[in-house]
Structure formats: C-alpha cells, structure tokens
Write a structure and sequence with these properties.
The chain is an alpha+beta fold and about 425 residues long. It is about 35% helix and about 30% strand. It contains 13 helices and 16 strands. α2 crosses α13. The longest helix is centred in the last third of the chain and has 17 residues. This is ACT domain-containing protein ACR1-like isoform X2.
Length: about 425
C-alpha cells in the first residue's frame, strides 16, 4: 500500500498502522508534492483501486504501471543488469559508453551512491532487434565488458558484482531492489550508531562522518511481546517507503506503527516481531537493524546540483550526457532515467569531483555542451531565475535546482509520468465492491 502511494509521488505526512489478530486498519494522511489536498476524482478512484489490488496480491495494477513508468518494474521487453561496487567519478559514463559500443539501448536506469559504494540497475534492449537480449553468448559478452568497468580500481577481495537480474528480482520494485543490492553490498557497515543520548564526542564523530542526524532506538516491550523500533530523522519524500522496505526485507513484521512529521523532523515508531515470532533480543541483531535503518534513510538523500534533462530519445544518449558530466569534472551521486513517449527524461544529482558544489563556470560549460534552457531555483527564497539560450526545437531543455529540501517544487519523477496517465488507467478498473 505504501508503494502505491509512493509511486504516485504523494507525500505521506502522518500514518497509523494496526494489523493484529488477522485484521488491519491503516490510515495515511497524504498530499501532493506541493502540500495540497488530493481533489482529482480520477486520481482518488485510481488510489482506491490500486490499494485494493495490492491487498489482493493482484498483478493487474503492476501491468498498468508497467505500460507508463518503465523503471518501476522490469518488463519482459527489456534485459535488466544489476551492478554494485566502489563509487568513483565517471563510473556511470564508462558503463553507458560500453553499453552504447555493444549496441545496447538504455531504456531506463536508476543509480544510487552511499558510503563510497554504488548500485545501479540498467534496463537495456537490443539496438537491432528492439527487444530483450536473448542470445546467451551476447548476454555473457555484455556482462563481461561491464565487469571490466566495475572491477577497475578494485583491489583483490573487494566486493563488486555485475549480473543479469534473476526472475524473482526482476519482479521487485526497482527502488526496493536498489535497497536490497546496497544492503547485500554491506554499505550500512560505515553507518555510525546514533542514539538519543549521544555525548559531545559522539556528536563530533557524527559531524566528521557526515551523519545526517538519523537516530534509531530499539527496545523490547516484554508485556506485549513486541520490539519497539523508533526512527527519528530529517523528513523527506519516500522516507516511509524506504523504512518499510528495510524492515520487510530483514524479515520483520510490523503489527502497529505511528508515523508523524513536524516541520522538518519525522518520527517513526514501529511495534515489530521477526517473522518467526521472536523479538530482537541480541545486541548484534539490534545493531544490525539499527545500521540498516540508518542506511535506508541516507541512501536517497541527494547531494549536489539537480539537473532535469528531457530530449529526443536515441541510442547512445545516456553515454553522451554522462560524458559531458565527466569531461566537465562532475560526479553523479544519484540518477534516474526513463522514457516518456518519444522523449528520454532523467534527473541527475551532480557535484564537483572533489565533492564541492558546482561552480557557475562549469555549469555554463555543461549547458553549452548539451544545450537548452537552464532554470536555477533559489529554494530559500522560493524564487527562480532562468537563463534562456537561443535554441531550436531539437535542442533538449534542462532545468537545474539545488537539492536537499522537501519544499522543492518537484521536477521529473517516474510518479509524475503516472499522474499524467492516471485518467486512462482508472478507466480500466472495475468498480469497487462494497
């Protein structure tokens, strides 16, 4: 249910979850990205039908989403490649260049970085056959070339992986799958275990490590037979989705929960048991859960300048765009690329290779190389200014804004693509039975 609301880019500001004794009652307070109440009747109808379908475990809703938002689920029309390894400047540029050279058209891709690790899922199709890569020899060739890229600069014994997505993984929500990949890569090991009663020395340590202030506390309520997990962090979109995915993938069952936010702080409290019925009794288990929840809240936090790109789709486009970033000394911290009709659309969070903010001269170089219009949003004042360029209709449009504020007006997102199709989608559902 949380996934349905998250994929529509709805903001969950408050939630109460109760499921015990075979019954459930879940309450979600949601708005759009600008904080407005949902009044579109077709959207409301779609949400009702989608949540009912999710409760029945129906594939109907997934089929409808697949047609419009390709990166959400892997379609049989594409081949999915999963990659994990050490993050470094230019990694995505090298990966996309290899795929272009091998005649693989990137139809969608999502990439995250966290704690010097990187995870990426790329959906490709054969350039000539316009479908999935089915020849085992060709699949092995693509995988081998990608392994050479990912393994560069790795030392013996360091973790890295390039693999064809397994059938079970290919049916998993893309962003949930990224959480699974990064957890399997143990990116959470560097997360400092922040607590509510941290000392001054702990605070200094957290600042040096760049901790975002996330606090996790795990206690046992022996009278009721639950473990109480409390997460306090900076509020942001999709926070509840990331937390629920982590608890579920670690085999914990949520029986009761209360989620609320005040200004910029979110507080989540869960009453959980392991699926075998036991509570979290060992210190090692509590520490593992704490670190995984901290990593889940941090992975989606983007650092750097946000670039929203939209242009005519073509083979090798991702390679060209990421090459411009690399040659301009920019490193990609997060990326999400998809297709909308005949257009390729994507969001990139970039920063200087040294980790500093992008200077205006570099931004101007990138703008000139790719073309289009640059829109700079001043979030603290809520105003924007544009830098128009003389361009023809074939030149892509690019808007930019600095990240790390939940008040930003949203740019491209996969959920926004689904919003544009929701009227068509809702007409395909049957009426709800009372």
């Amino acid at each position: 249910m949380v996934q349905v609301l998250t994929d529509l880019d709805l903001v969950i500001s408050k939630s109460y979850i109760c499921s015990d004794g075979g019954w459930l009652m879940d309450v979600f307070h949601v708005t759009d990205q600008l904080g407005n109440k949902i009044t579109d009747e077709s959207l409301i109808h779609y949400i009702e039908q989608a949540i009912c379908a999710s409760r029945r475990g129906s594939r109907e809703i997934q089929t409808c989403v697949d047609r419009n938002v390709r990166p959400r689920h892997v379609s049989m029309e594409h081949t999915a490649m999963e990659m994990t390894g050490i993050d470094r400047p230019g990694l995505m540029s090298e990966i996309s260049a290899v795929l272009a050279e091998l005649g693989c058209h990137v139809s969608a891709a999502v990439a995250w970085t966290h704690n010097k690790r990187a995870a990426c899922i790329v959906y490709v199709e054969d350039e000539l056959k316009h479908g999935p890569i089915q020849d085992p020899y060709r699949v092995a060739q693509v995988q081998e070339q990608l392994e050479n890229v990912v393994e560069a600069h790795h030392y013996d014994g360091e973790r890295r992986s390039v693999r064809l997505a397994a059938p079970a993984a290919s049916q998993t929500h893309t962003e949930r799958r990224l959480h699974q990949l990064m957890a399997a890569d143990r990116d959470y090991e560097q997360c400092c275990s922040c607590g509510y009663e941290s000392s001054a020395d702990d605070e200094v340590y957290r600042q040096k490590k760049g901790c975002n202030g996330t606090e996790v506390k795990v206690e046992n309520c022996r009278q009721k037979g639950y473990s109480i997990v409390t997460v306090r962090s900076v509020d942001r979109p999709k926070l509840l989705f990331d937390t629920i995915c982590t608890l579920t993938d670690l085999q914990y069952v949520v029986f009761h929960a209360s989620i609320s936010s005040f200004e910029s702080i979110a507080v989540q409290e869960y009453y959980v048991r392991h699926k075998n019925g036991w509570t979290l009794d060992s210190e090692s288990e509590r520490r593992r859960l704490t670190q995984n929840l901290m990593a889940a809240t941090e992975r989606r936090v983007s650092h750097g300048l946000r670039l929203d790109v939209s242009t005519q789709n073509r083979v090798g486009l991702l390679s060209d765009v990421t090459r411009v970033f690399r040659e301009s000394g920019l490193s990609i911290s997060r990326a999400e690329i998809g297709i909308q009709g005949e257009k390729a659309v994507g969001t990139f969070y970039v920063k200087d290779a040294s980790g500093q903010a992008v200077n205006p001269e570099t931004l101007e170089t990138v703008r000139r190389e790719i073309g289009g219009t640059v829109l700079v949003v001043n979030k603290s004042l809520g105003r924007s200014s544009s830098q128009p360029t003389s361009s023809s209709n074939t030149i892509p449009n690019i808007s930019t804004s600095h990240s790390s504020s939940k008040q930003d007006k949203p740019g491209f997102s996969l959920g926004s693509l689904l919003w544009s199709q929701v009227e068509w989608l809702s007409s395909n559902f049957r009426p709800i039975k009372s």
